[in-house]
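new request in #modeling-help
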Amino acid sequence: MTTTKTAPRDFGFGEDEAMLQEMARKMLGERLPMDKLRTLVAAAPEPIYDRGERAPWDKELWSEIVELGWTGLAVGEAEGGSDVSLAGIAGIVEEIGRHALPSPLIATLMASLVLRAAGGAVAGALLKRIAGGATASLAITNGRGSWDPEHAPLIASGEADELVLHGGARFVQDAFKADFLIASARLGDTLVLCAVETAADGLRLETDHIHDLTRDQASVHFNGVRVGASSVVTYEGAVVLQAVWPSLLVLVSADLCGASERLLQTTVDYAKERVQFDRPIGFFQAVKHPLVDAMVEIDRARSLLYHAAAEVDVASGKAEIAARMAKSAASDAAAFISDRAIQLHGGIGFTWEYGLHIFFKRNMHNQSLFGDGVHHRKKLADLLIGPISTSPNLARDPAAN
Amino acid sequence: MSSADLSQEQREFGEYARGWLAENAPPPPPERLPITPIEVMTVGQRDYLQAWQRKCYDAGLVGADYPKAYGGHGHTGFQRIANQEMNRAGVPFLINIVGLSMAAPTILQHGTEEQRRKFIPGCLSGDEIWCQGFSEPGAGSDLANQRTSAVPDGEDWIINGHKVWTSLGHFATWMILVTRTSKDHKYDGLTYFLCPIAGQPGVTVRPLVKITGETGFNEVFFEDVRIPDAYRLDEVGKGWAVAMTTLLAERGASEGAGSGGGGGESAIRDLIELARGTWRDGVLAADDPVTRDAIMQRAIVAEGMRQNAKRARVPALCDHPMRLPLQQKLTGSEFQQNNARLGVEIAGAHSTLYKLDPSAPQAGHWPLAYLNSYGNTIAAGTNEIQRNILGERVLGLPKTK
Ligand SMILES: Cc1cc2nc3c(=O)[nH]c(=O)nc-3n(C[C@H](O)[C@H](O)[C@H](O)COP(=O)(O)OP(=O)(O)OC[C@H]3O[C@@H](n4cnc5c(N)ncnc54)[C@H](O)[C@@H]3O)c2cc1C
């Protein structure tokens, strides 16, 4: 009992982490205020929704972000990164969510976390590229509604010095902003993770026509993509993805928490200003109380988020439960405040121009990404109650005991 | 105990408390105990619980952080540890809840040196049981609408009026009492007293029966009750401010003098056990996906509350200092209510059985816990009032009243 590692009482969120978050909040607040965000991603609906174009993003701001070293946040110092803890990264990602930043940062952070978990020379070289500003994304999801990392989207064949990949990866985040992908493929009994350039021969990115205006998403078709030994990250793909899964959930949860707090504060501000029946609408409890309930839900999600990050950072062995709880709570809190934010703004909240929908859609996207609340509670039940017995038998009859 | 959180002294004290509780856990009670102190009904329960509090007090687990001059043990940061250990050990709760979490902190802040020395020791040891005389027939949520009058008469005061919902009034020797001393000002016309109850001429305590059919709270009538001015707490006309100190302490914004047992840590375990032992549509409830999801929702809230308590101590992760502390009463009481409701649901038709029915699961715990849970969503400021407070003080929305 005494040998289990325990997370520090401040979740490992000390002065340095607080400074990083503060800096990110300030920078994004200045560089991506609401009017700028609106002009950038929601100038008009037609290009994106009618013509299926990808939402624009600010490449100038992205170079600043690369300059600040944020692509290297999850990269070790040996590879030229800044080796920030997951708690510290969660702080920055909350700000990304709060400002609904369109960028390849989160996808790249996820790829770096996978590479770090894999270890070895191939991963090391890729991490160096990322620390230097390269971008990446994960192509690890198939189209059959499974978030189980075992259910790889691709089939690999061939020998150790050259693999050939076939198949289709779905829901690849910000694929069009990525220099390379980390793809997972089934190779006999093993799961192999490979790095594949998005410009590789035999690889085709197909734009998903999506609601969210703050990212792109792709279906990636692999038609005999050749991968040399220098691009095979690991043959222990299942173990690596299993181990890194909590960290991925932490990143999405952090994004959800940041965006949800933004929606809460925006709606609170509106409820103080908008006057009807001679009073600011926030006076009325049908407005006030749901906002309190949203705050309670966001706070729960946020506490669980930092708890999960801290459990990952100290490798306590409790990270999976903590992270699934965080993602479930964050998804549900986000759904609730997104709903109330639009409703409590009245007609103006329903307009394209006002822009609440930008956060609503980003949340809606993240709520299902890597599994929604129901999905994670199902997994949690397996962990905390035990797997469902499919063949009820008398031995399980409580009266028989 | 998460050792990384604590100072050397706190760790040692935690070990001591754990050891002491393991060796001194009381024998089973002579009769079944209720779930919370405000439901204590019989003399047998009282005697047992009062003896237990005395023992904990003597061992240093109650009043740990109070100065020695006032009967405390003179430490800092120990009470939190003691509370955790008492919770964990699953020992009975401390009966003198009003004395510990309301009277003692209020007297410490507003009392004269003499009052502190006279009254606080009995609160901590449990030798004097306290009750709270705030609510009246016309003064519930609108607490300042007090009618009970206190009129000066030489060195004494004469009290007349009617208090309701007085928990523990049937066992109390003392009451914290709010009275009206001036009709000219709603809030500034109130004065706070420490009032003897048991055997006091002019005081009549009459039991009220709750929805469960049990007693537990009372109404208290005052007819020309004479008490000395030495029992007035703080100045005449300052009663509202003093009452606010009491309410803040009551609503969990302070560590209190001690609160043992009855904690929510085992709540989820209990629900899982119930589900494992209950058939539902031909399978065990523990194998029913909907039930599993519902239990996991509760588990996430339970963990969220624990992590909220932790995050409340990390200023860098708190936007507003009162944001998390002010949520405790709301989330805690609804947590218990929702758990109990789920227990009733899982038990299904068996939850129709009253505790005296021999086949009632967990001796009829779930339906009674559910009925009783409304005590906590109503008492100590209803949860609607809590939502007003959070909306106004934390989110800054316009005041309802
Ligand atoms: C089990 C139990 C133990 C108690 N123990 C004690 C005790 O020991 N000592 C003591 O002094 N008191 C005690 N109380 C009293 C308790 O503090 C009051 O019941 C509570 O403050 C509510 O007052 P009320 O019952 O008059 O309800 P009301 O104030 O009449 O409220 C009725 C309903 O209206 C709602 N409401 C009222 N005002 C507003 C508003 N402004 N906005 C929104 N909704 C509103 C309430 O939330 C509630 O749902 C106890 C109560 C219970 C249930």
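bot summary: Chain A touches chain B through 54 residues (CB under 8 Å).
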